[in-house]
UniProtKB/TrEMBL annotation:
Keywords: Membrane, Transmembrane, Transmembrane helix. It comes from the Bacteria. It holds the Pfam family CCB3_YggT. GO terms for cellular component: membrane. The chain crosses the membrane at residues 15-35, 67-88. This is YggT family protein.
Length: 97
């Protein structure tokens, strides 16, 4: 049972990792006019990604200093995912498995 819970948490963290990476790449493509926000598909994807990540980003953005156009929130979240996945979960579940 503990292993199934561990695997579920790892899969959810992996999905969140890729959502953040895809959102960052999409924002760069939009910023450099490679893709057009006028496209319904691009706009729908960006709104969906924003709605998925906003609940995670907003508390971190309140804490972090304003750096102008540079948003380091995704990097902080990715670092947090990495720490949870490699430093917190294995010791937590090693005693349960």
């Amino acid at each position: 049972m503990a292993y199934a819970l561990y695997q579920t948490i790892v899969i959810l963290l992996d999905v969140l990792w890729w959502i953040i990476i895809i959102q960052a790449v999409m924002s760069w493509l939009i910023a450099f006019n490679v893709v057009n926000m006028g496209s319904d598909f691009v706009r729908t994807v960006m709104v969906a990604l924003d709605r998925m990540t906003a609940p995670i980003y907003n508390p971190i953005r309140r804490i972090m200093p304003d750096l102008g156009a540079l948003d380091l929130t995704p990097m902080v979240v990715l670092l947090g995912i990495l720490i949870i996945r490699q430093a917190i979960l294995p010791p937590l579940f090693s005693s349960l498995m």
